[in-house]
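Notes taken during the Thursday session

The instructor put the following on the board and asked us to keep it in front of us for the whole hour. The protein is Tartrate transporter. We were told not to look anything up and to reason only from what is written here. First, the residues (447 in total):
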Amino acid sequence: MQSLANPSCAASHARDAEIASSMYRKIMWRLLPFLFLAYVLNTIDRINISFAKLSMAGDLGLSDAAYGIGAAAFFAGYILFEVPSNLYMQRIGARATITRIMLLWGMATIATSQVQSPGAFYAARFFLGVAEAGFFPGVILYLTYWFPAQRRGRITSVFLMSGTLAGMISGPLAAALMLHLDGWLGLRDWQALFVVEGIPAVLLGLLAWRVLDDGPEQARWLGPHEKALLARDLADAGQERKATGMRHLLRDPRIYAIGLTYLSIYACTNTIAYWMPTLIQGFGEQQVTRIGWISSLPYVIGLVGMFALARSSDFRLERRWHVAGIMLVAAGSFVLMGFMRGEMLWSVLCMTVGAAACLAALPVFWTIPPAYLSSGQAPAGIALISSLGGIAALLSPLAVGAIRTRTGDLYLAFDVLALLLVAGATAILSAIPASLLSVRRGQQGAS
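Then, after some discussion, the predicted C-alpha cells were revealed:
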C-alpha cells in the first residue's frame, strides 16, 4: 500500500496497465481472426457431409444407417487421436501442430470427393477425424499461452461463436455450390462440394506457419516490456492452484459430470448438424436451396442466444443455472416436435428453438471447466472433457441412423435427445456446487 502511495510507483502501475491493455488488444487482433476463420472452415468441412448426403447417398447406395456409420467414423478417429495430438503439441509446438492439422484435414476433405463405395466413405471419414484430432482442445490450450485466466472466458466465447457462424453459412453455401458446380471438371455436385470446401483449409494451413507463433517468447511483434508483463500475468494466474496429474482427473467424479453435460449438449448440436437437411427434406421440402436456408435458422437464432445468455450469465455471475435452464428449454422443444408431426412450420420451429438453445449453452458451459480446474489441470482436463463430448458425436449419428432406418422417422431420436439433455442439466446442478465456482466468478467479475 505504501508503494502505491508513491507517485512514481502509481505512475508506473498506470503505465503498465495501459501497456497491458494495448498488448492484449494486439494479441487478440493477431491471433483471433486467424483462429476464428480456421474454426469456421473446420466446422464447415466437418458438417458438409450432411448436404452432400442429399445426392451422394443415391450414388454410393448409402442407407440412413450406413450414413450414420460414416458420420460416426469421423469421431472414432477424432477421439482416438485427440489426447495424443494435444500431448504432441506440447513437444513440437502449436505452430507446427495447427499447420499439420489444417493441411491434413483439407487434403482429407478433398480426397472424400473420390469415394465410390460405402466402405471408402467410412475410411475417408475416419481419416478426416484423425486429421482434425486435437484442433479444438489444441486451440483452447494455445489460448492459455497468451491470455491469463481472467481474460480467457471472453476470448474463448469469441472463438466458439465462429462455429455458430459456420453453421449459419454452411447450408446456403453448400446449396449454392451443389447447384452451380454440378458437372464442374466432370464432378458430381457433392464431389465438387468437397473439393471446393477442402482447398481453403490447405491454404490456411500454409498461412498458419507464418501467422502463428508457438508462444509469446517467439513473438517478434511483441516488445520486451510487453513480453515481461505478459509473463508476469500468466505466472500470477498459474500460482492460483497447484498442478495435479491425469490420474487425479480420471478419479474425479465431477469431471465425468461436467463431461456428461457437454456430451448431452454435443449430442444435440451434432444431430442437428448431420441430420437437419434430411429432416427438412422429410418434412416435404425438396428444393436444395430452400433446405440450405432453413438449415441456417438455428444458427442465426443460436448466435443471438449466445450473446444474450453469456451477457446474462456475466451480469449475474452465475453459470450452472444458465446452462441447465437453456438445456431444459431445448429438451422441451424436442419433446414438442413429436406432437407436431406433419406440420412442417411448427416442426421446424421446435427444432430451431431446441438447436439454438443448445448452441447458446456452449460458451457459458466452457466457462465452467476453467473455473473448476486448476491452471495445471486445465490442459489435460479440457482435452478429457472434450473427448467425453466426442463420445456423443461418435454414438449419436449411429443411433439416429438406426432409429431412422427402423422407424422411418427421426422424432423418436429427438425424444432420446430430450432425455439426455435433462440428464446433463441434472448432472451439472447436482455435481458442481455453486461454491466451487464462486471464487472464479468473483475474479471474472473483478476483471
